[in-house]
Design a protein that fits this description.
The protein is mainly β. The chain contains 1 helix and 8 strands, in the order E-E-E-E-E-E-E-E-H. It has one helix spanning about 110-120; strands at about 10-15, 15-30, 30-40, 40-45, 50-55, 65-75, 75-85, 90-100. A hairpin with a 7-residue loop joins strand 5 (about 50-55) and strand 6 (about 65-75). The longest helix has 13 residues, at about 110-120. The mean pLDDT is about 95.
C-alpha cells in the first residue's frame, strides 16, 4: 500500500465520529494501472499522536491499523509509521503525508527532521519510495 499511486487520505466528520476516506490506484512507481480503489475506515485518536483506523469494508475483518505520528515539522508534511493486523497477516510500514502532490516544496529542515526520526527508529529514509501524484485525478 505504501507505494500505490494516487493515494489521497481525507479525514472527514461522519455522523458522530471521523472517517479516513482513502483513495488510491493499483500500480507502483507513480504509475496507476487500475481504476480508483476506495476504502473508508473509521478513525479515532485514542491518545495524542496515535490514529486508530478500524475497517468495516474489507474482506478480511477485523482489520485494524495504528498510525503513529512520528514528526510534524511543518503544516504540509507529516511522517507516519504504522502497523496493522487482519486475520491473514500483520503488517507495517511508514510514509510521509503531504497536502501537496509532490515533495518538491518540502523545506530542507523538514527533510532533515524526517531523516533524523527515521534513523532513530532504524529506517533507511533513502530506501523509502517517493510517489509523484501530480498526474492523478481528483
Amino acid at each position: 500500500y505504501d507505494w500505490y499511486p494516487c493515494q489521497h487520505e481525507r479525514y472527514l466528520r461522519f455522523e458522530d465520529g471521523w472517517i479516513n476516506n482513502t483513495t488510491y490506484n493499483g500500480g507502483s512507481n507513480s504509475d496507476p494501472t487500475t481504476e480508483v480503489i476506495i476504502t473508508v475506515p473509521h478513525a479515532t485518536m485514542p491518545s495524542p499522536g496515535l490514529i486508530r483506523l478500524e475497517y468495516d469494508d474489507e474482506p478480511l475483518l477485523p482489520q485494524i491499523e495504528k498510525w503513529h505520528i512520528m514528526a510534524y515539522p511543518e503544516e504540509n508534511y507529516m511522517m507516519v509509521f504504522w502497523c496493522g493486523t487482519n486475520p491473514a497477516l500483520d503488517y507495517n510500514g511508514g510514509f510521509v503525508l503531504s497536502r501537496t502532490r509532490t515533495i518538491n516544496d518540502m523545506l530542507p529542515e523538514t527533510e532533515a527532521e524526517f531523516r533524523r526520526v527515521a534513523e532513530a527508529h532504524g529506517v533507511d529514509y533513502d530506501a523509502m519510495c517517493v510517489s509523484d501524484n501530480s498526474a492523478c485525478l481528483g
